[in-house]
Amino acid sequence: MRVYEGKAKRIVPLDEGKVIMEFKDDATAFNGGKKGEFKGKGSLNAQISAVLFRVLEERGVKTHFIGVAGDNRLIVERLRMYPLEVVVRNVVAGSLKKRLPLAEGTELAEPIVELYYKDDDLGDPMINRYHAKALGISEGEIDEMERIALKVNEILKEYFASRGVVLVDFKLEFGKNGRGEIVLGDEISPDTCRLWDARTKGSLDKDVFRFDRGDLMEAYGELYRRLVGDS
């Protein structure tokens, strides 16, 4: 029995506290206002997520990733998810350029961390720590999620840079496992990261679909090739 289906994934239960995370070929943008389907997109997102989860695990970041169960499926630890998205920004782009008087592409002196409340009906609004605490999330839990998010940023910035990619910004989701640990969940893919080619500044992420900037599958495929190649 399916326990959850979102815009981009299905979650199917297994025994012993595990679930299968199945990536769909659907693409959505602007809170579901724009939709499309791209054959093979789910497989690319699953395989890219697997690569990046392994990189993080090797560097000491605890994630829910257990293994690959097929082209578009990952086996992951079942978590009690927090209703938060933790966004880390390294370069001015997207909604940040609407809130700060800085040009798109401006490199930030230090990362900016933002919190968003996950609720489609409310449009996933940005919130602060006081809002998060009002939702029952403790100061310590917020501190831990932000600490992990900044460590993820440090690791992935270096990793992507070594492959000619700029990690502009990305969103993470966290949950608590059966042992009471806060661990990284959801996915890390071009659906959840803003990634630019270091030379051309061309998009290698969902902005290709969002703003009609070319062939989405070509962009995702190029990113995957860079991650699994030797360069």
Automatic annotation (TrEMBL):
The keyword Ligase applies. It holds the Pfam family SAICAR_synt. InterPro entries: SAICAR_synt/ADE2_N, SAICAR_synt_PurC, SAICAR_synth, SAICAR_synthetase, SAICAR_synthetase_CS. Pathway: Purine metabolism; IMP biosynthesis via de novo pathway; 5-amino-1-(5-phospho-D-ribosyl)imidazole-4-carboxamide from 5-amino-1-(5-phospho-D-ribosyl)imidazole-4-carboxylate: step 1/2. Keywords: ATP-binding, Ligase, Nucleotide-binding, Purine biosynthesis. It comes from the Archaea. The keyword Ligase applies. Residues 3-226 form the SAICAR synthetase/ADE2 N-terminal domain. Signal peptide: none annotated. It catalyses: 5-amino-1-(5-phospho-D-ribosyl)imidazole-4-carboxylate + L-aspartate + ATP = (2S)-2-[5-amino-1-(5-phospho-beta-D-ribosyl)imidazole-4-carboxamido]succinate + ADP + phosphate + 2 H(+). One of its GO terms (molecular function) is ATP binding. GO terms for biological process: 'de novo' IMP biosynthetic process; cobalamin biosynthetic process. This is Phosphoribosylaminoimidazole-succinocarboxamide synthase.
